[in-house]
Amino acid sequence: MVNLGYKLMAEEHDPRALVQNLIAAEQAGFDFSAISDHFSPWVEEQGHASFAWSVLGAMAQATSRIGLMTAVTCPIMRYHPAIIAQAAATLAILSGDRFVLGLGAGERLNEHVTGEGWPGVGERHERLGEALEIIQGLLSGELSNFRGRYLKLDHARLFDRPQRKPPVILAAGGPEAARLAAHKADGLIATEPKPELVEAYRGAGGKGPCYAEVSVCFAASEEEGLKTARHYSRWALTGWKVMAELPSTEAFAAATEHVAPEMMAQNVAAGPDPSRHLEVLEKFRKAGFDHLILSQIGPDQAGFLDFFQRALAPALRRA
C-alpha cells in the first residue's frame, strides 16, 4: 500500500496560507504532509521562508488526522541536534503522535547564515552521523552526554517526551547515505526514482518506510504548468551537488538563467492530464518507495487538491 503525502512549500506560501492549505489537504484525503525547513527561498520569485517549527505547532492544533513531517531539517549547523530533538518531542505530543522527523545534510543557502562557514561534504556527513546519535538518543531517553568530533551534549534531558518515539527519516541522494539511514535512522527519503537507493537501504538492514518527494504542477495546460514550474522551481534542475553549495537567491538566479519552461518536463509532471502525473508517480512506486509526497508547484493549491481528490487519489489507491 502506498501512503500519499502533501508537500507544504514554506518558500512559496506565507505561514497562514500553509496552515490553511494543510487543513484543505486533510479534507482532500492525504495521509500525511511534509514541510520544508529553510531560512531562505531558493529564488526570489518564491518570496517566503517562515520558521517551520512555529508553523508546525499551529498545524498540529488546526488538524486532527493528517500526519506531519519535516522534509527536511538540517541538524548540523543552524540548529544544534539537541534543539531539534526537543522540537520533535514537543510536536509529537502536540499532534498526538502524528509527527515524523525528516533530517538531511542541508545546503549552504540556509546554513551559512550563522556565520560559521560551510564545511565540505565529508565533514557534513560526519556531523550528520553525530547529530543522528544525539537526536535518537535524546528521543529514546537513552542518552544525556555525547562528545563527538564536531558535536557535544552535556547532561541533556527531554522532560516532555512522548511515550512513542517519533520516527526519524533520513534524506539520501546516494547509496552511502541510504546505508547511513539503515544504520542510524528509521526510514529513508529521496527526490529521485532511483531503485538503487531503496536497494542500498534495504540491503543494509533498513526496515522502515521509504519516502519520495515528487514535483507536480497541475494547471489548465501542460504549457502553463511548465511555465509555472520554471518560474518557481527552476532551481531544482541544478542538481544536489550544486544546490548544496550555492549561497544565495542571486546565485541560484544566475545558475538558472538558461532554463526554459520545456526543460522542466524532465523533473515535473505538468498539466491537467492525470495519466501524465500517474506515469511519473508510478516510477517512484516501482523503485520501491511506499510513501509519495506530492509537491504542487505554484499558487494554485486549491485546484491541485481538487484534482488530487477527483483524479489522482482513486487511481493511486487502486494501484
TrEMBL record:
MF term (GO), any: oxidoreductase activity, acting on paired donors, with incorporation or reduction of molecular oxygen
Keywords, alphabetical: Oxidoreductase
InterPro entries, sorted: F420-G6PD/mer, F420_G6P_DH-rel, Luciferase-like_dom, Luciferase-like_sf
**Pfam families assigned to the protein according to its UniProt record, in alphabetical order:** Bac_luciferase
Residues forming the Luciferase-like domain are: 10-291
**Tagged with keyword Isomerase:** no
NCBIfam families under this entry? F420_G6P_family (TIGR03557)
Q: What is this protein called?
A: F420-dependent oxidoreductase, G6PDH family
Query: Lineage, please?
Result: Bacteria, Pseudomonadati, Pseudomonadota, Alphaproteobacteria, Acetobacterales
